[in-house]
Specification:
mainly alpha; 4 helices; 0% strand
Amino acid sequence: MISLKILMPRKKVAVDLKSLARTHTETAVRVLAGIMRQPKAPAAARVSAAGILFDRGWGKAVQPHAGADGEGDIRVTIRQMLGDE
């Protein structure tokens, strides 16, 4: 049996797979919206579908960086430097 890797390089497969997946975008969005609107669907599935739609439509929410206590600046302490001595 001939390996699929020999016939189709990994990079080419990934590009083709991405292209193929994108052809299903409209259907996927409709399915997610349908799950979100389905009262009989489990709440977790509805929330997950809504979150995915928000992320794709509006981008993921910005995650602020904060210090150890959850507020203020992030501080980095360098205790030892190696190299040029």
